[in-house]
Design goal:
CATH architecture of one domain: Ribbon
Shape: globular
Structural class: alpha+beta
CATH topology of one domain: Umud Fragment, subunit A
Pfam family, one: Peptidase_S24
Number of strands: 9
Largest sheet: 9 strands, mixed
CATH class of one domain: Mainly Beta
Strand order of the largest sheet: 2-1-3-4-9-5-6-7-8
Helix content: 10-25%
Number of helices: 4
Strand content: 15-25%
Order of helices and strands: HHHEHEEEEEEEE
Oligomer: single chain
Protein name: XRE family transcriptional regulator
Organism: Chromohalobacter moromii
CATH superfamily of one domain: Umud Fragment, subunit A
InterPro entries: Cro/C1-type_HTH, LexA-like, LexA/Signal_pep-like_sf, LexA_repressor, Peptidase_S24_S26A/B/C
Distance between the termini: 44 Å
């Protein structure tokens, strides 16, 4: 079904490893179950969608002293997707084939309407290196949840999670290029720019951010 070896399939069944995103997608489609249920055992097993409530909205007619409303409910997305929230240490070891969970571990999942191209994850930002000066945008303060998609191309100007060879943890920075040389740049100018030259692996690209109030 997924063109894998019996040994790999046994590891999946024993909980020693988790299939990569492409194989999860294939399995869920063939078995007609939700990707989140298959990968993490969370939520309903059956495929389901959030209904679109926009068609059910009807404006109240004006008359008898009543005023027609000038607002309407926001259109709801057709589907929601949930991705795990992980730390900087786990993000450094994140690949399409290896998902760094201990056997039996159940990661916290955060929902979004974004359908990832790769095996996406949420990263909760620590520190102030991505807090831009007042008035500058974007700014990613501490505590922000950032959705990282490994399937998106890491082009200059994108915000990325990267693993530098001499570090035990991943870092979240802006990827910039100057004269053919690439750098990892913090949005906070108080932090130094990191030159990368074959000593860095881009884990994924930021595609969404949200802050808990």
């Amino acid at each position: 079904m997924c063109e894998v070896s019996p040994r790999a399939a046994i590891k999946w069944l024993n909980g020693d490893s988790i299939p990569g995103h492409e194989k999860i997608m294939t399995l869920s489609e063939r078995l007609q179950v939700r990707e989140e249920w298959l990968a993490y055992g969370r939520g309903p097993m059956e495929l389901s969608k959030v209904s679109d409530t926009s068609a059910a909205y009807e404006a109240t007619p004006a008359g008898d002293g009543q005023t027609a409303p000038n607002t309407r409910p926001a259109d709801q997305p057709a589907s929601y997707y949930r991705y795990p929230v992980i730390g900087y240490g786990q993000a450094g070891g994140w690949t399409e084939c290896v998902i760094p969970y201990a056997p039996g571990a159940e990661p916290h999942l955060e929902a979004t309407d974004y359908q990832a191209k790769g095996h996406a994850f949420w990263l909760e930002i620590k520190g102030d290196s991505m807090t831009a000066p007042p008035g500058a945008t974007p700014t990613i303060p501490e505590g922000t949840l950032v959705l990282i998609d490994p399937g998106v191309e890491a082009a200059p100007g994108k915000l990325v999670v990267a693993q530098v060879d001499d570090s035990n943890e991943a870092t979240f920075k802006k990827l910039v290029e100057d004269g053919g040389q690439r750098f990892l740049k913090a949005l906070n100018p108080a932090y130094p720019v990191i030159a990368i030259n074959g000593n860095c692996r881009i884990v994924g690209v930021a595609v969404e951010a949200k802050t808990r109030l």
